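Revision sheet: C-alpha cells.
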Amino acid sequence: MSVTDDFRAARDRLLALRTDYHQAGREFEWPRFTKFNFALDWFDQIAADPAKANKPALVIVEQDGSATRRSFADLAARSNQVANWLRSQGVRRGDRMIIMLGNQVELWELMLAGIKLGIVLILSLIHI
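Predicted:
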C-alpha cells in the first residue's frame, strides 16, 4: 500500500469512529510515515482521480455572497506552476517563506506550492 492509501485508511477509520470518542481514543492511531507530503501524497492524488478532480477543493465566500471556487485539479495544476516558479527563483527545501495575504485563492496556491517544496511557511493572514 502507498502512503496515500495508508493515510486514507486511517482517515476513514477516524471518520467511522467520530461518534465514539472513547473507542477512537483507544483504537485510533495515525500511520507513522518516514516520508509524507500532504500536497503531493494527498491533495495531488485526489486531483489525479478522474472522479474527484473537478470537485470543489476550495470555496471562498465573500460577505456579499459571491463565491470563488477552485477544483482539486485547478489547485494542483496552479500550485505546481507556483512551485516551479519558486524553485526557479532559488527557493529550496527548508527555506522559510512568509505569506501575507487575506483568504484568497493565491494564499492556497502558495501554501500548497510551499508544502510541495518542503518550505517552512510562516502565515500572517490579513483581514480585509
